[in-house]
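Data card: per-record layout.
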Amino acid sequence: MCPKNIKMKMPLISVIIPVYNGEDFIPVCIESLLNMDYPSDKFEIIIVDNNSTDGTADVVRRYPVRYIFESIKGPSAARNTGARVARGNILAFTDVDVIVEKNWLFEIEKNFTNQDIDAVMGVCKGINRNIWAELGQRYYEIFVAQRKSEGKNLRKIDTKNFAIRKAVFLESGGFDNNFMNSEDLEFGLRLYDRGYKTVFSSGVKINHINASELGTIINARREQSFYDYKIAQRYDEESNKEYFPSLSRWRYRCIFLKNRKVEKPILVILNYMLPIFIRLSVLLLKVPFFFGVRKKLYPVFSLTLGLATIHGKILSRSVERGYLSMNAHCEAKIFKRQKIF
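The structure for this 341-residue chain is written out next.
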């Protein structure tokens, strides 16, 4: 139990969770939040329903949490709505497919005792139901390692485990509703550009139920890359060298050309060929998968997601240049059915 004098000094924290068709995950997520060690009168749970068509609303209303409906589609709009109605001085963001550690809010609050810290990103451990979830976690941990290397002033964040002072959130304008994906990347870069200090804390821990269908993982990586490119276009060439160094590599310099007559056929061909290459790499994955050679899976898995990353940027460039409509991009799913094998 928390001593009364210490408890009185604790800030009220608002936990904000956007959800779309999350009835299968939301009970475990909410129960983990309700079982935290943090004093129950010092935090609130805000679930923002982003147009769910399943039983999410009915499930959420069984719990002592705040239910909010947001009709504007996208996680940015949902999180912004949660922040707008939040009563806490600190906003803690996570996702519906997450189980938090019991000391999650205590560790978040500990970081904010330092008045120089504006935001904090924590560790995301994986709950892996199969080999694809394990490989996805391994791929994600490269991102986490990069954040650790940045030390005390992060440029990029992940909203699965992120907290920020409400005043800073409002001053910075919150998440950009124009981004249906990678909105946390855009927000993290904006915080960094404006001089806010975001730190990485290994003590702030959650457990994420990783996607277990290969098609879902590939499509998600492609979609993230699509919006990553759109974000990069907001910055000048010098900033892109720091924030998006991959765009300076030879492969993109050869693909993204100023001469439209040369560029357009290259992009059209690649938009057709890359999904074929990705499907071929999936076939390559099947060989070690069926023979149980797990060590051989990750290099091919990484290659597959690398191809999806290139495809996403090429699609985004094609939309930007007017070679492809946004509707055509939305229809260009590599795998219509998410489960491959």
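Known properties of this structure: The first strand starts at residue 13 and ends at 19. The chain has 14 helices and eight strands.

See the next section for split statistics.
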